[in-house]
Design goal:
There is one protein chain. With 68 residues, the protein is an all-alpha fold. The chain contains three helices and no strands. The protein has helices at 13-20, 24-34, 51-67. The longest helix is centred in the C-terminal third of the chain and has 17 residues, at 51-67.
Length: 68
């Protein structure tokens, strides 16, 4: 479960990584692999994340963990 901050609509990359329990590098790799996979110039960095972004990334991580 992600501990949402009431009224907060955007999270920084550092906040997003902390909420997901990953490093910034792992967060960027997750975004690169599942979100911007068609963009060869992207390094996976995103300026800000919305709660729905974090929910989707959490679901992807959980699915990957089950597949392992």
């Amino acid at each position: 479960m992600i501990p949402w901050e009431a009224g907060k609509t955007e999270y920084t990359e550092n906040e997003a990584a902390a909420l997901l329990g990953v490093t910034i590098e792992e967060l960027r790799a997750l975004v690169r692999e599942h979100v911007v996979s068609g963009d060869p110039d992207s390094d996976g960095a995103v300026a800000c994340y919305r709660p729905t972004d974090l929910l989707l990334l959490r679901m992807i991580r959980q699915k990957e963990a089950l597949a392992s």
